[in-house]
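Reading a protein record of the kind used here takes only a little practice. The record below shows the convention in full.

——
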Amino acid sequence: MKLKLKPCQVEQVAVTYLDQMHHELKNELVANDIDPYLDSTGVVDVTRSIIAIEVIMRELMFEDVYFIWKLENGVEL
């Protein structure tokens, strides 16, 4: 099966996937705060991944939509 997406659909798939990944990584940090299981390198890697996703989301989303998303889902570091 071959699927052909329009550029705006590809962008929406990317935003949806990154949003889900961001949510899962954020949950990892919360779980690690409750019961630490990551070493310091793991925490740094997860934190860097979250920051990278937020930077990419800022580029992919309209500014006003990004700021709403950031307020609702962003991680305060």
User: Anything to note?
Assistant: The radius of gyration is 15 Å.
